[in-house]
Amino acid sequence: MTGSARIAGLYRYPVKGLSPEAMQEAALRPGETIDWDRAFAIENGSADFDPAAPKHFPKVKFLMLMKNERLARLHSRFDERTATLTLSENGRQVVSGNLMTVEGRTAIEAFMAQYMKAELRGAPRIVHAPGFSISDVAAKVVSLINLASVRELEKLIGRPVDPLRFRGNLLVQGLSPWEDHDWAGREIRLGEIRARGVMPIRRCAATNVDPSTAERDMEIPATLQRNLGHMNLGLYAEVLDAGTIRPGDRIALV
User: Fold this and answer.
1) Largest CA distance in the chain
2) Which overall architecture, per CATH, does domain 6-32+137-253 show?
3) Could you tell me the CA-to-CA distances from 174 to 9, 27, 29, 57, 170 in Å, in that order?
4) Phi and psi dihedrals of 51, rounded to 5?
5) pLDDT in tens, 207-233
6) On the CB side of 37, how many CA atoms lie within 13 Å of its CA?
7) Where in the chain is the domain with CATH 2.40.33.20?
8) Cα angle 51, 106, 124; round to 5
9) How far is the C-alpha of 145 from the C-alpha of 170, rounded, in Å?
10) Quick one: which of 130, 223, 233, 236 has the most CB atoms within 10 Å?
């Protein structure tokens, strides 16, 4: 590490599979995700997610970019003060609804029933449980994306790669390529907050989808496996302290 590693970008994804929201700061608490990150998901068919007793399900249960790239054509905006989700396509608002009310969820579900009808296995249902993160992993974590690793991937692919393909919470600059993979099990400082590396993030076919055009135009997991012998890019980390992080904060091993 050069000693100048910093948070270059900070994001959350209120609805699993929908677009990111850039943040100017994020309040973190021990053992928790960023507030509202993956707080909602859209069940594709089977309606067995129980908000009263939430449990981790494989991501294939929900609408998600790995199989449903059409989602990337939608721009989502979530207002946490009113719990209102607004969806737009090509700059035009198509639906809005309060996700904490039956009426609001019904409006979003009705739109998705038409918009995603060719890919649905049954009626779409928006699910949420307070304090529960509908993440790809059962643990409550934040995800770090090493921008130097993304630049190395660009060399392998021969094209620019948008870091938002990896749907991370923190974009990190100033590291060596793949350096963060060695942080699993080690303590990290994010600004004034301590965290612990959990494990590298194994990439799936969702990264093949351009987040701007919704085109499936790359083979990122296959490229990683073919050239590096693994499909990892990024790191999951567990938050150990309470505090606030911001773009520009330094990152270092403790």
Assistant:
1) 52
2) Beta Barrel (2.40)
3) 13, 23, 25, 35, 13
4) -60, -25
5) 999 999 999 999 999 999 999 999 999
6) 23
7) 6-32+137-253
8) 65
9) 6
10) 233
